[in-house]
Here is the input.
Amino acid sequence: MKTYLVTGGAGFIGSNFVLYMLRKHDDIRIVNVDALTYAGNLENLASIEGDDRHVFLHADIRDEKAMSDALATYQPDYVINFAAESHVDRSIADPGIFADTNVMGTVNLLNCCRAAWDDGKGGFGDHRYLQVGTDEVYGTLAIPEKINPDGSPADPEHTDYFRETTPLNPHSPYSASKTSADLFVKAYHDTYGFPAVITRCSNNYGPFQFPEKLIPLMIHNALNHRELPVYGDGLNVRDWLYVDDHCKAIDMVATGGRLGEVYNVGGHNERANIYIVKTIIAEVAKVTGDEAVNEGLIRHVTDRAGHDRRYGMAPDKIREELGWYPETPYEEGIVKTIRWYLDNPEWVDHVTSGSYQEYYARMYDGR
Ligand code: NAD
Ligand code: DAU
Here is the structure.
């Protein structure tokens, strides 16, 4: 039986990964380490309560003793590092915590794994470390001249994508911190032979995503007849991936990826933000039959500072080496996601009460 130590497993992607892995594999154990920041929520894991293949540890990846103890106690075969501060707008408002958690937390985890896994002969046995990274480290691609009716880029010569060889060029404090973390992981591999692999994924969406991110925020606001705040002209493009497709990629790279390598994960599901918002309006209106949910709710607001224009991934390497491909078209994934938010009003109520209201006012009032 293999043991996975997953950090950030009470957050959006981490909790989906824990649930995905326990659905797919009978013979594993998951040790879930999470500091339970505003983004961590044990309600995401309610469906596996009582499943003794899952152990939750309330701990911080920056805490050397806690991480060393966890590694010694549970002897994981794999460590998957999801834990991070993940929201770009928060990083613009308060960059320091992004350096602390995303950079120093990763370095601490690497040090603890290195010490725990050292076999005394310059090796690390069969252990493997996977760093969950982002396409934002590559910076931005140019916006296409034309957009198709489905919101995707329309230029016939449109061939520029992020590849694993694309130079790193982060713009926001969030992406700078994630780039720095990736470079530490690479340095530990190159210097110490540390058994690490890095994935870099595009924008995820799906159940349990905190409504500070575009898709859940727009669903939540539409359901409550609140304005839908579109930054700038709404023509920034993101490459959307349904979260389970990302979980599958991480599962495959953790066990089958080549050490020291980077794997881009993305959906070829590029859509302009304004298109995303309009599809959410249309689908919410259809499902609820509520005529007050219409495009009159859209409000263009001040753009995000340093706003990357377009992300678009070429996931060729992971497809060629491991056979992974994105299985969920955006049009299918968005319907599943909206239905999940409609079917889980208690979850939404809990995460949007209290400090969420203060956050929302700070970010959006007067914007
Ligand atoms: P999230 O903000 O929803 O969850 C982050 C989790 O990490 C939370 O549970 C939080 O409590 C935990 N955490 C934060 N600081 C911690 C610390 N010091 N110690 C232990 N736990 C801590 O984030 P997410 O969207 O699920 O993203 C997960 C990872 O995937 C991040 O590394 C992010 O950079 C990366 N990523 C996200 C996306 C996306 O679209 N959301 C895309 C590509 C990569
Ligand atoms: O690309 C991967 C990244 O995707 C991850 O590494 C990050 O953790 C994740 O947060 C996400 O970053 P983005 O900045 O792309 O996601 P966000 O949902 O914040 O914004 C998506 C787009 O929508 C972006 O162009 C900004 C825009 N936007 C966002 C919000 C919250 C709006 O127009 N209005 C909004 O209110």
Observations:
- The pocket of nicotinamide-adenine-dinucleotide (ligand 1) is lined by residues 7-8, 10-14, 34-37, 39-40, 60-62, 82-84, 86, 101, 105, 132, 134, 178, 201, 203-204, 210 (CB under 6 Å).
- The chain has a mean pLDDT of 95.
